[in-house]
Amino acid sequence: MSAILTLRCVRCKKEFDPRKITYTCDECGETLDVVYDYSAVAEKVQRSELEDRHGSLCERYRDLLPVSDNAVPPGLGEGQTPALKCNTIGDGLGTPNLYAKDETQNPTGVFKDRASVIAVGKAIEFGRRTVALASTGNAAASLAAYAARASLQSFVFVPERTPVQKVSQSIAYGANIVQVKGDYDQTFDLMVEACNQFGWYNCSPAVNPFRTEGKKTIAYEVCEQFNWEPPDWIVVPTGNGCNLAGIWKGFREFYKLGSIQQTPGMVAIQAGGADPLVSAYKKKKAILEPVHAVTLAGAIAIGRPRNFLKAFISLEESHGIAESVTDDEIVEAQILLARNEGIFSEPGAAASLAGVIKLVDIGTIDRKDGICCIITGSGLKDPEFALRGSSKPLIIEPTNEGLRTIREFELSKPSRVCCNAFLPAIAPR
Ligand code: F0G
Q: Is-contact 89 136, C-beta < 8 A?
């Protein structure tokens, strides 16, 4: 068993027994943090030891995850995603040290798989046969897949307007999918009530303290991929703030254990129509003022971030930055990534690059800095907006005339289909 000491409330510090199911603090309602005995694991997670370890995400980092040695949850090959150097976009922006950690390469196309494997493992450990969560779509499909793999029943709650791709993915994995006639925040509240009444294991982001632990493995991998010298900035598309907080926890742990000498600054990017964390952080006040979320980046359309405090603290501790971007900037970044780097992300996932473009433009981030954007989820899950401004397919007869049409089309285009249409607007001034 890993060295978990306790679950501790992020606000009032009340402690809870990690062997019992507890979601949020019964005193103040805040989220809980999983606390480890780092002295007990220090030797096992030194660089040399980790470098020699292979196997699944849970096997590699088992000492710092809530998994037992004899009950490693059934995985699907999650994690170990590449950190790709963005040469073309970097050239265009004048940012020579720009990277994209491509989380679209996870088994269900999203970083959530890192959390789902842990949450399902805990459900098995606690003897629950039904898992549930509320989601803007990605966490739902991910949990559905891992529940299928572990032969558990799943109920996933999503807002009615969730893209059909995400809904059909959940259905394919055999989830019971509930579409709520309301937004994410209403969906979330209803699902919590369902779990309380029906005894399902609640795997929702923020409420389930163990999910965050899976997300911190992004930080572990970044440390390894950057030869134990993480870049200056880790840029994260942010909704509830769970991913941001999880990644920061991972860096903090590796720092504490002496594996890295410096921690990066965390950068939270939210969509302009759903940016209460950004507003609060800019005011330097950890007070959540919920908004009615309005953005086409559905994955991060969250007006009341459930992990607000953890995310806020992560920004403060890391001397981080919070910024919002417009929907147009998000779609532009989505197209840039696909056409120049071959990474097809959904709009919410491209918010990190949109944020970098803005932050280097206004001078908050130095162009020479090391920057790693987390590209959180695949464009196949929400493809509608990628088609905006894109060329339409050629539809031709299967004849020589058809071939001539293709040739004329080719000759009418610039030599390379790339992001040049956008670069003049974002190039260094
Ligand atoms: N990117 C993508 C693709 C997401 O699906 C999400 C969250 C985020 C970023 C933001 O992460 O909430 O931890 O700050 N999706 C959740 C879901 C809400 O239900 O799929 P966060």
A: no
pLDDT (0 to 100) of residue 293:
95
Residue of minimum CA distance from atom 6 in ligand 1: 299
- Whether 239 is in the pocket of ligand 1, judged by its Cβ within 6 Å, is yes
Choosing from 105, 116, 138, 216 the residue with most ligand 1 atoms within 8 A of its CB, the one to mutate for a pocket test is 138
Write down the pTM of the prediction.
Answer: 0.95
Question: How far, in Å, is the centroid of ligand 1 from the Cα of 299?
Answer: 5
Cβ–ligand 1 distance for 347 under 6 Å, the answer no
How many Å lie between the centroid of ligand 1 and the Cα of residue 139? Answer: 7
| Structure confidence by residue, pLDDT tens digits, 221-238 | 999 999 999 999 999 999
Which ligand 1 atom is nearest residue 138's CA?
A: 20
Q: Judge if the beta carbon of residue 346 lies within 6 A of ligand 1.
A: yes
- Read off the pLDDT of residues 56-102 as tens digits, 9 standing for 90 and up: 999 999 999 999 877 788 999 999 999 999 999 999 999 999 999 99
118-165 pLDDT, tens digit each: 999 999 999 999 999 999 999 999 999 999 999 999 999 999 999 999
